[in-house]
Amino acid sequence: MIEVKDNKNFYEVNKVKRLLLLLLFMMVLPFAEKAYAKNTVIQVNEEAAVFDNRSGSLVQVGTLSAGQTFEVTKDYGANWWQIRWGGYYGYVDKRYTTVVPVTTYKNTVPTVAKIKDYIVTTNVAPIYDNTGNELVQFATLSEGVSFPIYNRMGNWYGIAVNGRLGFVHSNFVVEEKSQGTTNTTKPIEKPTPTPPPPNKQNGYIEALENVTLYDFRREKPMAIATLMKGQQLEIVDALDPTYVKVRWGKTYLYAEKSMVKFINTPAYKNTGKDNAMINEYFIPISANSELYDHSSKTLQPFAKLDTNHRYPILRKEGSWYVTVLGGREGYIHSSKVALDRGVPVMMYHHFLKEDELGRFKNVSTTMTDVQFTNEMQYLKSKNYETVSADELLRFMRDEITLPAYSIVLTFDDGLLSTREYAYPVLKENGFKATQFLITYRNENSKDEQLFNYHDLQSLSRQDMANMQDVFTYGSHTYNLHDLVGNKGKMLLIPYHEVVEDLKRSVTMIPKANAFAYPFGQYNANIINAVKEVGFTMAFSTALGYNKPYDDVYQIKRLSSNQKTTFEQFQKMVLPYAQ
Length: 578
Prior knowledge:
The protein is α+β, with helices and mostly antiparallel strands. Strands 34, 37, 38, 39, 40, 43, 44 and 45 form an 8-stranded parallel beta sheet that branches. A 7-stranded antiparallel beta sheet has the order 5-6-7-2-3-12-11. The chain is globular, with a radius of gyration of 30 Å. It starts with 6 loop residues before the first helix and ends in a 5-residue tail after the last helix.
């Protein structure tokens, strides 16, 4: 018979052995995985989902982009690869990948860091590699995913994705502060070692070669200027691992650290205050757009400006305009620039073929399809960028700058002729535009209606949905687009009725934040009603261009009609007067 009195000691000894074996396994595992990852690289054949399995079921948290390469943390059985994903692990289906010899990226970061703050995605968020000449998407985050922040750079958040530094634009995320203590360490990527910062808080950089200075406030970076080889600028900070920050007006530009060296004492004397500039701008109109140091007896170029951007003016001295870049005053001759008059906003309504005009002949709100096509082709040929109403709003609030050759296209009344003659042309040219709808008319329009050039027909809900790849939609009232004599109905009814109508108009277009005044008529009460309903901007019919700090509830517009010549249109859309 087996004695049982020693069983307790027997089990205690075995328990200790098991714990020691488990501890040894846990110590060895990270080195085994590291060695595996060092040699095992996958290439994504087609977009591959990344899954989180911590809840006990697979939840998609993002994707890896086709053609991109990634190191593997672990071979997770017959069907899955394991990769690092925001402080935990993600899993990728092997069927969508191929094992390749080496990685093809340069945006590497190593492996452990303290997590303080997070981004939470409000939509599917593209993640970009910025190590080349242009942004390259290499992954996405799914909507609602929380991800630790590696760094911040203008309107971009840097995040570490499986050993790769990627950037997500703030348009797709909100920032979330971490809860609890700040000394909790989690297994995410460690910041890349960076060159030591300057000895003084506001140090300087010197360009090792011609260095592009970027503005990151829009979704895509904009190259604003080039700092010439050997030239120096004052810096704001050097905390970012990839870029160093310099001041430009009331905002900042960024230069790649790998292309500059830090110095403590500058050689230049042309210091200036960037934030002292006035709300006036010039646009370079010559390829000879160098910015000169005028502090010595001879003019010395230290930077080159871009001909598709506007630059704030500090002052004018004789035939020279003075601006400030990175703490240095720069001079450019007036013959090389033109004064910026702001962003043009075009207003269109109705379109017909020449032989369809009939009673619309010479009506100012009607244009032929040929004329519209010619105007859009001209904009395309001159590399105009059609910017959204939202970006115009940010520009007017001085939150971003826009290319000099930017334009906003707007269409009032929501007419069916825009489906027939405007939409195809806009789509072909890759343009975006805004339609202002009289939503009572759109609600009562039938889907799949045939176009009748004898009448003014309104877009249906289906038409709107079919064209949302080109158009966004704003309000032109629910049912107040009428004249009583020569006055708009909005001006003649009580304030609360105006508010109720505007509220009703947005039930059909709930995301609308832009409004257009019917017939361009409004007063202080109408502006207040527009604000009360929640519109953040409103368009008038007053002629002119739009600059930073202009009233966003009195946005000016331009119009082209049957009597407008092609030469008049070309001059009209220029960002400067000739």
